[in-house]
Design brief:
Length: 256
């Protein structure tokens, strides 16, 4: 496969080459964002912010995620991956939204796994979770830049971080065959049908952030534990859902 070419294209969400859907906000999504105004419950930019910040943010967006990320030592390791994005700040807040919303579900003790579907060429959400949680992380994307991600993993000695260059439908069987443990799934602007992907996977809870095809990126069938418009995500694609799997055999393995 032409890793470099595909990887670069995978990063450009607006050019329509990032997967199964072109990444343009639908009219319905734009209308809904306009109707809800800034939406969400997170803090928004206040008058005390430096004026320059206002120009960097989408209307109504808050900088809390970015501030929290940048205050931590792990930021230095994350930066090389996020710097490759067209809009690193925006990408960081999208991945951080997944962390923020799934963290309450991750068990305090014992192993757990997070599968990051449609994680892009640079496996950034998996990288963030590997640095910020104790979960095992698997990044799945058909345009994953394997040499680049391997180099990053080795350079920073990142543990609990694996990746596969594949479509989720092709990787699902291998993922389901991994040792059993509470399993979580992220879909950060993933260009997949969330319900179709979840149907193929063993999972306990999932986070999805919709961009251009909310009809497929938001569930129609699963129980929605939490949903809304995340004001701390610095892009127009800020509608999220947290889903729980009521069909887990033996009852949910989660505690909140
Ligand atoms: C808009 S990009 C989002 C990338 C990354 N999550 C981010 O926020 O930067 C959509 C991603 O979905 C991936 N994708 C498309 N079809 C897929 C599939 N069947 N399985 C897994 N990923 C897929 C694309 O390759 C692309 O990287």
């Amino acid at each position: 496969m032409l890793d470099g070419v595909l990887s670069e294209r995978g990063e450009r969400k607006s050019d329509g080459t990032g997967g199964e859907f072109p990444c343009k906000p639908s009219r319905a999504l734009l209308r809904s964002l306009q109707r809800t105004g800034r939406g969400g419950t997170g803090p928004v930019v206040s008058d005390s912010d430096p004026p320059a910040m206002h120009h960097e943010l989408e209307p109504g967006a808050g900088s809390e995620y970015l501030d929290r990320l940048m205050r931590r030592a792990s930021f230095a390791a994350l930066w090389p991956l996020f710097a490759k994005g067209e809009r690193p700040a925006k990408e960081m807040t999208e991945s951080f939204s997944a962390l923020e919303h799934l963290r309450p579900f991750l068990p305090a003790e014992g192993p757990c796994r997070v599968v990051h579907v449609g994680d892009g060429a640079h496996a950034r959400t998996a990288a963030l979770f590997a640095l910020k949680t104790k979960s095992e992380n698997v990044s799945i994307d058909p345009v994953l830049n394997v040499p680049l991600v391997e180099e990053w993993r080795d350079r920073y000695e990142i543990r609990r971080f694996t990746f596969e260059k594949a479509r989720i439908q092709d990787a699902a069987e291998r993922l389901n065959a991994l040792p059993r443990m509470p399993t979580f799934v992220t879909f950060v602007h993933a260009h997949v049908s969330v319900d179709a992907a979840l149907a193929a996977l063993r999972w306990d809870a999932a986070f999805t952030l919709a961009c251009c095809v909310p009809g497929k990126q938001l569930t129609r069938v699963h129980r929605i534990m939490d949903s809304g418009v995340d004001a701390n995500v610095l892009s127009t694609g800020r509608t999220y859902q947290v889903l729980v799997n009521d069909d887990v055999r033996g009852g949910p393995s989660l505690s909140r």
